[in-house]
Structure of Putative Luciferase-like monooxygenase family protein:
Amino acid sequence: MNLALTFYSVLKMPISDIISCGVAAEKAGFSHVSLAESFYRDAAVLGTAIATNTTKIKFGSSIFPIPTRTPFQIAMATATLNEISCNRVGFVGLGVGYRSRIEKYFGIKIENSLDKMKEYVAVLKGLLSGEDYTYRGNFFSFESFPKLVPYRMNIPILFGSSGPKMIDLAGQISDGLVLNSIGTPDYFKEAICTFQESVKRSKRKKSKFEIASSVIFSVDDKYDEAIKAAKPDVLFYVLYPELDPVIEKTPYVERIKKIRKEHSAGNYKEALSLISDEMIEDLTIAGTPKECRKKLQKIYGYGITLPIIRVSVQTFKENQRKDVFLKAIQSLAKM
């Protein structure tokens, strides 16, 4: 079974420790390392650092936000990482990102996301075609971009989204999905169904698709400690309205409204206290090593082909986080 470990770009942890954890993941039998980018660290550069210290593990992105990266940058980064890693780029994950972050931190207004994504994918595939490439569109228009790679790179392009419209578009033009870091069986079923119906409606000849999902993962020999460590991560995600399609499939809609209200009023501790143990059970993988392995097996049963393990470290000091990652990796060795 395929299994990925993610390092998100805002992870406060020395790069030397991240590299060590990437090496450990390869030794433990993980199939992929997936780098997430929003701000702080560059996902492609971080992937390159890990690639130069490993030999087998593949690389993905979950995700690159298309408002902050041009398709030219992604194509060049992908080609470079693939060359350095000796053809180990497994997939490129693209998404819109979180509106509040993109618009506040980068000063970029998010609009026309579906139409822009269509063109973005066309341009990215063209740039990796092994030929000079010209494109005429509403968002991108250019003449004879010089041949970027010596041969066509058929690297899968996955869409990172929770919303039905982008998932429907993914079924038309992508190679699969990267679902967000909280999920339920009902949501997984609905998202996969939406994707598959779109594939069928589009009459695509392609039959094999990757359905990846980021998963909050918290493991400890003491169950209560694992639950506690996952709570800040769940709080982080439920604050974003982009996760509403997931939240609507849970019994926590009203509670999350209260959580958002407290958080927007500056009451972080009160908001965190409203994240219940039941929410952690339903929305994450948390518990003892044995419990976590059992829960991960269920994820595959929901139709997820590539779980992407997002280790919970917020409650730990920066110099403790490497050990937390290593414990998580070891708990899933040779799955």
